[in-house]
Amino acid sequence: MYLKNSLCSVRFALYRHFKQELNVDIIKDVEFKEANRVYEAQCVEKKKQGLAKTEHQSPTADEDIEKLYRCGIFNTKSPTTLQNKVFFEIMFFFSVAVVGKIFATEMKAV
């Protein structure tokens, strides 16, 4: 059983592929009107089934992050471990910035 977000991801991937390769817009072109109607109906059905919710993972504990840094997996003396460190920090701090920005936006609305 697919989640609504999965359907959205597949649709966007198809859209991007057809737009780049064939210059065809599967979302706006009249030829795809029926397919888009079916897609929208499936999205409504997924929502009714409770499959439209995004389940977020719990935040990484500070102790776990400290363990990662202490165990040597983020050592800057090896190309592999340096790559681990850079990847982790980009992903971790980018997600913190995005969540913080969303939270700040929500706070302004209150």
Q: Brief overview, please?
A:
This protein has helices at 4-22, 33-48, 62-70, 79-109. It has 110 residues and is mainly alpha-helical.
Task: Give an overview of the whole structure.
The protein is built from four helices and no strands. The two termini are 37 Å apart. 1% of the residues are buried. The chain has 110 residues and is mainly α. 68% of the residues lie in helices and 0% in strands.
Please count the helical segments.
4
Q: Any low-confidence stretches, pLDDT <50, length ≥5?
A: none
Distance between termini? 37 Å
Structural class: mainly alpha
3D shape: elongated
Keywords:
mainly alpha, 0% strand
Can you lay out the helices and strands and say which pair or pack?
Elements: H1 4-22, H2 33-48, H3 62-70, H4 79-109
